[in-house]
Design brief:
This protein is mainly beta and about 300 residues long. Helix content is about 5%, strand content about 55%. It has a 7-stranded antiparallel β-sheet, with no helix packed on it.
């Protein structure tokens, strides 16, 4: 006896699965060796869900939408469309909308043939200021069942390095003297970040050593790109500070650096303030001839 299922097992077709035969079986004998068995297959399909997420401390403070474009070709036909993910800051969740019949449940591409390659791309304008990652990859190869691609936005960050210097014509401070190089900035959610780089004169040709919160160094990492950082010095009342490098200084003397992905370096140079001594010469004897005297 020959079964349709047995025939299908010996004749697999990539990305198709056997459904039934007509007839389901036949008995082989000298009278039935010319029978025909029809085998029926369904194309194997899978679903792809596209999720949106944010990295740590990266969610926007206000509602914002992100356009996730997709493209794939199935049965010779090219499909394109957009899944719009809208962030709800209050609940830290997303709602999804679409502009294509390819998508069901807001963010799921359903019934895609197995082996189809689907590429997801977040629009550059929406991704501005973020590093974008795709998990497990930007292009999904459809398998039977369900799979997910997660598009995660993490705020792009840069760094700020604060350097201390003394003007060439200024006397060096005493060994162990410290200067506080202060900085502060505000995150998108309104959180204020502030800190201090402590520059200590070590009394040698190498100049200053630096600490931040007790740790060696003078570079502040992890500042969101585009952030404006205010910089000011304290503990240097006998010096006048000037700023150079990646910094702008207002007429009022406010120094600010705008962070980019390459990082900024700002140098604070101190010039010792000089005083003046005034005196009056009093000639008590008016008869004294002072011609030719110099003072």
């Amino acid at each position: 006896q020959l079964t349709a299922e047995g025939l299908a097992a010996s004749r697999p077709i990539d990305n198709y699965e056997f459904v039934s035969g007509d007839p389901e079986s036949i008995r082989l004998n000298s009278e039935s060796n010319n029978n025909t068995v029809k085998l029926y297959y369904n194309k194997q399909v899978g679903d792809l869900t596209v999720e949106k997420a944010f990295g740590e401390n990266s969610a926007p403070a206000e509602e914002k939408s992100f356009n996730l474009d997709y493209v794939y070709t199935a049965d010779g036909e090219k499909h394109t469309g957009t899944i719009v993910a809208t962030c709800n800051p209050g609940t830290q969740s997303f709602t999804y909308s679409i502009n294509s019949a390819d998508v069901t449940n807001g963010n799921t591409l359903s019934g895609l043939p197995v082996g189809t390659q689907v590429t997801i791309t977040e629009r550059a304008a929406d991704a501005s200021g973020y590093d974008v990652s795709y998990t497990p990859s930007q292009t999904a190869i459809i398998a039977q069942g369900e799979q997910t691609v997660t598009v995660t936005n993490t705020v792009s960050t840069g760094s700020l390095t604060l350097v201390k210097a003394m003007a060439a014509d200024s006397a060096a401070p005493s060994a162990g003297d410290s200067f506080n190089l202060n900085y502060d900035y505000t995150l998108e959610d309104g959180t204020k970040v502030e800190g201090t780089v402590v520059a200590t004169w070590n009394g040698t040709e190498t100049g200053f050593t630096y600490t931040i919160d007790g740790e060696t160094g003078n570079t502040i990492d992890g500042i969101p790109v585009g952030t404006t950082v205010s910089i000011y010095e304290s503990g240097a009342s006998n010096y006048k500070a000037s700023y150079s490098g990646d910094v702008t200084v207002s007429a009022a003397g406010d120094a600010k650096a705008i962070i980019d992905a390459d990082g900024q370096t700002v140098t604070l140079t101190n010039t010792r303030k000089l005083g003046q001594i005034g005196y009056n010469l009093v000639r008590q004897d008016a008869t004294i001839n002072t011609t030719g005297w110099s003072f």
